[in-house]
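---------- Forwarded message ----------

FYI, see the Phosphomannomutase/phosphoglucomutase record below. Original note from H. follows.
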Amino acid sequence: MFPKPKSVLLPNTYAFESEPMVKPTGFREYDARWLFQKEINLMGVQALGMGLGALIAELGVSQEIVTGHDFRGYSASIKYALISGLMAAGCKVHDIGLAVTPMAYFAQFDLDVPCVAMVTASHNDNGWTGVKMGANRPLTFGPDEMTRLKEIVLNAEFKNKVGGSYQFHENYPARYIADLTNRPKLKRKLKVVAACGNGTAGAFAPQVLEAIGCEVIPLDTELDHTFPKYNPNPEDMEMLHAIRDAVLHHKADVGLGFDGDGDRCGVVDNTGEEIFADKVGVMLARDMSAIHKDAQFIVDVKSTGLFITDPVLQKQGAKTAYWKTGHSYMKRRTNETGALAGFEKSGHFFFNKPYGRGYDDGLVSAIAICDMLDRAPGKSMADLKNALPKTWSSPTMSPHCADEVKYGVIDAVVKHFEALEKKGAKIGGQSIRDLVTVNGVRVTVEDGSWGLVRASSNKPELVVVVESPVSEQRMHDMFEMVNSVLRTHPEVGEYNQKI
């Protein structure tokens, strides 16, 4: 018998070394994230592996799984604890070693393996760990699977059996890189800054971009799990500003920034201005819908209103639907609808054939951006961006809110706006034109300005985004309106960044 996990154990004690610790809040909507040693220990990770193996069997899927780990000082040890649990549950484990997350997704197809468990904390700060899991390629788990996994692990409902095995796939990255680069070279000579924040993508991104024909300026591509410059997250202004400086210094055509596990790509244009991922999505949608008739796109609720209102997309017959934020939700919806692509404001992009296999890969996104520039030889990245109708958009802003209370706060905020809409009340002197409540609440007023509030799926935070097609002042007005509602809830703390 394996002990039932405890939610809290003190480090440097007998119990910590002899019992599993798994804090329940680490099971998120579509993946798992914990502070290592504070919320989960190695025996807890082992329990997670046994639980995942049991769930895979319960789902009626063959117990064969790909594993890999990101570049953090503790990720390899966590992966081996996870593997020991998976093998105890009877799984055949295919270990691809140090990897970006999309390399593990690719391996599911390449090795013909149904399941995946990638050890990564993605863009979270050092100290965090986590696992991205799936049992139905190219999809990853959603709330139903995560809820069941949580029950199995926390109640120690393990179904361990003999028959588990382990196989290490030597030099696996070469197969992933070959798959991405087995294509015609770019006709246009592009000078590209590849920024990796000393994270995992540094081992792979520069050579992929070089192989498709780019001149690459590497920026913080040396692997260093202390992340000495900044956290590898292309949504954070610190990373974007570092890319800006490099683009201007080297007179590059574009700056591409990859997050800690390589499934997202941030963009800085040739003038050094960052382009938020949803606007990049509109640019790519324009490029793709010019080639593919009646193209369908899925975008998350944090994304710009331009997907609906852009005259070029309308003229090209493109159709767009908004959906829940979160890589698993977006991946699933893009897959179910057969959309050409799905775009998430955080930078998770999902390309179906002929561009990709439906999973999020920052390098596939980077290649799509280079191809877009290749098809517009007389235009710079700034030209393509400036051709979009002007809107004023905020970055993603995240006020602290504990995991235990954040969903309750969001329920109250949704009810607040629903009541205002029902009464026909005005906010900031304008009527509510539209409420989208598939994921938190997105409130749009008469002039097209909108604000979104939702719970973060992987951190103890809320998420706030605002945009206006009218003026920068109206964007600020929407933020003040949303923030004034949040300030009525004392559980909501300080923001990580503000406009």
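H. also flagged this: The chain has a mean pLDDT of 96.
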